[in-house]
Amino acid sequence: MTLNMSWPGKALELFAAAETATGQVPPAFPLDAAVAVNPWLGQMAETRSSAAARMARVGGGRMFVPRETVAAMIADGEVTQEDLAAAASAHGIDPATLRRAAEEPSEPLQPLPTVAELVSAASGVDWPAFIEDRVSLWAAGHFDRGQAFWPAPHMTVWRSWRAFASRDLTPDLAGIDGFAARVSEMPPEARMAFFEACTALGLTSDAAPVYLHRLLATLGGWAQYARHIDWSAERDGERQNTLFDLLTVRLTFEVALLELGGAAIAQDWHAAQADYAAAITPDAGTRIDAALQDACDHSAERELAERLSQDTDAAAEGDAEIQAAFCIDVRSEPFRRALETADPGVRTLGFAGFFGLAVRHRGHASDLTEMRAPILLSPAVASATRTDDMADRIHLRAIRAWGRFKRAAVSAFAFVEAVGPLYVGKLLRDSLGRASAPSNDPCPVLDLPLADRIDAAEGILRAMSLTTGFARLVLICGHGATVTNAPHASALQCGACGGHAGDVNARLLAALLNEDAVREGLAARGVRIPEQALFVAGLHDTVSDAVRLFAEDVPDSHAKDLDRLRVALARAGVVARTARAGTLPRGAAENLAARGRDWSELRPEWGLAGCAGFIAAPRHRSAGRDLGGRVFLHDYDWQRDPDAAILEQILSAPVVVASWIALQYHGSTVAPETFGAGNKLLHNVVGGIGVLEGNGGALRAGLPMQSVHDGDRARHVPSRLVVAVEAPEERISMVLERRPDVRALFDNDWLTLTAMDDRGALTRRYTRGGWTDRAVAALRCVQAA
């Protein structure tokens, strides 16, 4: 929101409060790119405990694991007395008190009241639900991304809603007399309307930041979707006021209801403002909940340390006969382990799944541009499939036209009557999980000058710690999930590829590293790829655990290497499927692929549920150890990174993305009413944006219940992501000094940072006060208990 300094001081204070409030809301991206988002992104500058107190006050949902869950974990031995003692010590709580608290029920959250809630309590009319309904009805049309047949006129949020509400007589009929006329008389400019509304409410500058945040929380996913528009513009160096306009809409209802409530409500509202203005500090219950969450966090850290200390017969570090680079995604870890077991001559590597190539990609016969990159980036490089695709374009346009015709109101009944029986075969195929597989796009081409291609190749290889020891055959393997009838399908794809599969980026990198001119340029910079080294691309389907190779024009000299890789991949797929099938309801190794093609399957896979750790170290530190599909694995060799520039990239990009994923699963588990998408069985897609649970209500952001829960228990145990780095402590600290934004994630208890030694053991933990020895800290906690 642009501030005009000619506004009176009171207005500027209120505008600043609105800026603070809108910045507290996390973005929610549309369904075609439903990448993971940290639901507490706006609270990263404060500690978890302070953020929990804030969210409880504004109705932002629970932040910590419920006490009942912790009690069950204690009973099962997942949370030990050592974990409880460590958490109690960190929070200055008596260990016995903390243990007793785990047996008590979680205290209900009581957010501060809005005017709508005050009037509702006095009148018995559910005004908050009424507002939610009217805002959702308008928002579904305004924000529509092509689902509606009659798109809304393009205008700002405030002007759009003002035009809608000035003709909507529903509020008048519900009891807010003259609401439509009031709206029509309001200023057409949102800032003036906002200031008028705040003035009518008598809103004080002290109460405004928290109160306005509270109003935004009542808008649910619509506020988060509006924030995504503003957030994306900020990322790209632009500015939008979408969420501010939406906040003004919500304020308008508050003003009308304050007048409806009369003097009694005005008195209650005056008292509420004092509560909104009060300083935010964690109360005793919040501190207890924070400590119990810490006990769960210590449990996850201890489990990772124990898994890394397992004895293993994994092959020692050395030259590989085949190398395979996978995404760091936790679903890659079990497959990598299985592949290395299937063929000891294979060495795997981990790197962010977009493989360092942030591109704007237009697929074969497509008019759409896809952002194949982490959402933190705005790709400037273009890629496309340069083939004659006119015939396919005409075919796809005909399919789209037919689809729109069959859904049109004018043709609906006649269509079902005349053509419906022709769809029986398709329904049967879909019901039996025999939907057709997607076709392959031609190989994409990177639109970059040679010098830039050389720069990109060098940067990627150095970031992968892969500058020597190239094998004869190197697989660059992205990942994706083959699913059907799944609105949240993009949440199962590659988060590093913007919610798309990683095939495009893998194929681009393989082609880039096979290019003679690029290799010559690399050699001049000290990175020599042997002439016999060949790069091929692949795609790991995380539903079926099958790997598709894109091995176009492989020379005869590498035919045997490729056959060997195919055999190893097939064997690894059998092992991975067998292990994973047991974790899925009705799972069987032989039917995993069918689950992805079955339009009725609620849980084709578990996605990244259970993610708990991030390791930045050479692969041989973790090779052969069963990490349970819970750890992001990024290759990193600190001895090849003298200025810690690569480590800075890892901590500020892949680690941040991994933290967004872990915290999204955390939020969808502990606060499903706020940060979860609800029950898949009740979903209705709205506007191509998101889903409603049922036929109305607020837009639901986050993950569906079936993504984090199996019906009996949660599949994701929320814990702080443990980041383990093999590097000297002073080297890690150097990066934290350069990146205070990254350091804040650890200082404020959102992530755990540990150092790993050259045996793969977690030795030291970073705290705000410096580095501490994990073993000594644990001993002190036990003694204190």
Structure description:
The chain has 785 residues and is α/β, with parallel strands linked by helices. Residues 779-785 have low confidence and may be disordered. It has a domain at 9-45 and 120-277. The protein is globular and about 85 Å long. Helix 8 packs across helix 14 (242-277), helix 12 crosses helix 14 (242-277) and helix 20 (450-463) packs across helix 22 (516-523). 46% of the residues lie in helices and 11% in strands. The strands form 5 sheets. It has a 6-stranded mixed beta sheet, with helices on both faces. Strands 2-1-7-8-9 form a 5-stranded mixed beta sheet. Strands 4-3-5-6 form a 4-stranded mixed beta sheet.
Furnish the topology, listing elements before pairings.
Blueprint: H1 9-23, H2 48-58, H3 67-75, H4 81-91, H5 95-102, H6 115-123, H7 127-142, H8 157-165, H9 170-174, H10 179-185, H11 190-201, H12 208-218, H13 221-235, H14 242-277, H15 284-308, E1 322-327, H16 332-342, E2 346-351, E3 359-362, E4 370-372, E5 381-384, H17 390-407, H18 412-419, H19 424-431, E6 445-447, H20 450-463, E7 473-480, H21 503-514, H22 516-523, E8 534-541, E9 546-550, H23 559-581, H24 592-597, E10 613-616, E11 631-634, H25 645-652, H26 654-670, H27 672-675, E12 676-678, E13 683-686, E14 690-693, E15 703-704, E16 721-725, H28 729-738, H29 740-747, E17 751-756, E18 762-767, E19 770-773, H30 774-784
Parallel strand pairs: 1-2, 1-7, 3-5, 7-8, 10-11, 10-16, 12-15, 16-17
Antiparallel strand pairs: 3-4, 5-6, 8-9, 13-14, 17-18, 18-19
Helix pairs in contact: 1-12, 4-15, 4-30, 6-14, 8-14, 11-14, 12-14, 13-14, 16-23, 20-22, 25-28, 28-29
